[in-house]
Fold these 2 entries.
Entry 1:
Amino acid sequence: MKIKKAIIPIAGKGTRFLPATKEIAKEIIPIINVPMIHYIVKEAVEAGIEQIIFVTASGKYAVEDYFDRNQELEAFLEKNNKLKELELIKEIGSMVSVTSVRQKEQLGLGHAVLMAKDMIGYEPFAVILGDDIVVNDVPAIKQLMDVSVAHNGASVIGVMEVPKEDTKKYGIVKGEFINNTTLKMTGMVEKPNPEDAPTNLATPGRYILTREIFDILENIPRGAGNEYQLTDAINVLCRNKTVMAHKFIGERFDTGSVPGYLDATIDFALKDPATREHLIEAVKKRFNKYGITL
Ligand code: G1P
């Protein structure tokens, strides 16, 4: 069993990134010069995903266009002998097969995932949320796929430890550890207050799910925030099917928030030899300018 399809919901309005998101899709906002969505799709492709299903809303056409060929730009680059850039642009345009489906009303993540039902078929599939970039040689979603295979194709939820006071920002899992990194889940709760949270194991939006989730999503009531929550459906799934949670390896950046975005930008600039020296010099200069000493 190979997981070939990933649902990437991108219908959100990106209110944490206003005013930029007033006119552009938040997924197109770059970390230096690479749009955030590029990293998310790259994670999927490196894990062996062959088809991406974007769940979109109005104003998101740029995301679909980004992964399409752009003949006009290619011709321009070729004519001007910009061959390196030409190669890069062609590569992005043929990275993966992309389809999209509209979420006509913003009724929550569970509702968004349900919109892709008809495009999934019967095999397990991945769901990857775009607000969190996870950096690791073995992609986070691939690590979850491996756990799924090890457990007869079970659903697997990616988790990380968060400070207790942050449980109210995430879906939080509960269950029994079967080894140091993997739990057999007994339930999941959306954004509990710290005092009600069963654990501090939160999902930053990496899921392997089985087909049954759609039947559950069709029947759950609205949950937290008066929205249809994927978390609530997974909580029901745990009752009838094996659902695992796995602490994946990788550094995660909450690029949907301004501080997380800044962390990713600095990290990526320091990692890349093409930008490292410049960033170090630029920071030194500004430390002097603003009288900052460490
Ligand atoms: C969504 C999910 C939540 C998950 C989070 C990860 O919440 O509902 O379970 O932990 O994404 O980013 P949102 O951040 O969209 O409110």
Entry 2:
Amino acid sequence: MALITMKFGGTSMGSADAISQAAAIISNQRESGDQVLAVVSAMNGMTDGLLRVARTAATGDRSTHLVTIAEMRARHHLAATALVSDSMALAGLLTALDALFDDLIALCHSLAVLREATPRALDQVASFGERLSARLLAARLCAIGVTATAIDATDLIVTDDNFQDASPQMDETRANVQAILMPMLNNGQAPIVTGFIGATRNGITTTLGRGGSDFSGAILGAAADTDELWIYTDVDGVMTTDPRLAPDARVLATLSYAEVGELAYFGAKVLHPKTVQPIVDRGVPLRVRNTFNPTHPGTLIQPEIEIVPGVVKAVTIVKDVHLLSVEGRGMMGVPGIAGRTFMAVARANASILMISQASSEQSFCFVLPSNRAEAALTAIKHELAAEIERHNVDRVYAQTDVVIVTVVGAGIRNQPGVAARVFGALAGRAINVLVIAQGSSECSISLVVAESEA
Ligand code: ASP
Ligand code: MG
């Protein structure tokens, strides 16, 4: 018997059909003898809708939220009615949902009166999506004969008070999980826990940041000593590349933690490294699976078991980036110019995706998200004003219409020739490479090319 933690994302909770699929997956896994701890996202679109409603109310608008909340209520009622046929059970579920919607209306009304939505209040409003969806899934499971209970993670995950991006306190969380969830699991029950949310030590609701349900799955799974964490989504697993760009893109059977981290970093829509850290720390296997294709094994992500030399797993593209360059013959041997440049970039609140410097030390360049490029450029010119004046630095400029292409695979390590083949393939198509960098993990090679060549 194993303990499997399953996290279901927004599309996996997005309709009665999806929720009944999720319930069937949980029920089947339990029938095969395993324990299942489920962690759920809100129905897709709910979190965005809730935050919008709160912001509108905070302008003093006392009526718009009533319309939107009525639509949300109708959507949940519709799903409830399709999921639960027993009239007593359905009445109980609708009462529970309505109690939450009534609280939500009262809360939005108070925002409208106060004309204010603090991060703390926004977290409170945003928490309703997961609280509603957890109740729908638990009720569906009960309807198909599984003893399931919806649990608000505010009773389990203890966080700091950094509202909207709170960090878990693992020791206290672990104690709660051991005291509350483990007895339930050991009694044969299926706990259905809200993703995304937690609470401070004083019981004030917090959220773990947008998309935070993966993080919740990893936190709760780690605290429950789970054997595996399965992330259920609406695709079969992690792909070799974007299928919209390459029709021959395939689902990867396996990836290492390092490879998935590299992929996430370079823009592939997979697990954010921070969110799975609690699981990675413990070496627990992760799977990405499809709620709507439950027999597909998905992608297995685990510590590096063996590196197959030469194996490249995936190729990603990061768009909407600018390439910034700092050039000057007078920079050679002058310490601190790169350091000050990067500090200026940090002050402009821009995060650097890739850096490259030629050993001649006469220029270096780096890639930033486009929306921060202008601010970064201004900050650098200001910081290096004296050097520019003295012509130690000749030019600071940005190039647009470029993309980063990253080739990911632990097999690049210790394997001469992979880079040569990558560049050979580009040369074969006469594609000009603007910048090259290899991560020191040697798990990826990144290059910048013109967007038109992406
Ligand atoms: N519902 C939350 C969001 O949309 C968390 C999640 O779905 O992971 O950000
Ligand atoms: Mg998500």
